[in-house]
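Entry for the shared binder. Reason: the reviewer on the internal report wants the predicted structure included alongside the sequence.
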Amino acid sequence: MSERTRRWYAGWFYAAAIYNIAWGSFVCLFPARVALVTCLPPPIEVQAPFLQAIGMMVASFGYGYYLLAREPLRYFGFIWIALFGKIAGALGFLYAALVGALPWTFGLVNLTNDVIWLPVFLSFAFTVRFEAARVNAYAEDEQERLNSRE
C-alpha cells in the first residue's frame, strides 16, 4: 500500500475512532435524548439500557479504529470484525423496522453508525487483502526459485 493510500485510510479510521467514542459516550450519558430524536416509544426506562448497550459497543469500536489508523497492516484483522458489525447492524435494523420493533426514524442511528462507513471499510479490507495475496504469491515464487537452486 502506498504511503498516500495509507494516509487516506488512516484519516478515515481516525474519523471513525473520534465519531465512535464521541457518539457512544453521548448515548451512554444521555440515552433519553437519543430516544427522543429517534422517536423510540416510551417508557425511556425500558429504552435507556438498550441504547446504553449500543453506546458502549460503539464506543469500544473507537479504540479498534484508532489502532487501524496508527498501524493498518498490523491491526488489519480488526476490519473484518468491524465489517461484520456494520453489516449485522444494518441488517438487524432493517429486520427490526420491518417487523415494527423499531421505528424507521431509528435508521438515522444506523445510517451514521454503520452505512456511511461501509464503502471505505470494504475498500480497505479488499485492498489490503489483495495486496497481501500478491506479496504472498511473490514470496512463494522466490522461495521456490531459491529451493530449485539447491
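Summary line for the report: The chain has six helices and no strands.
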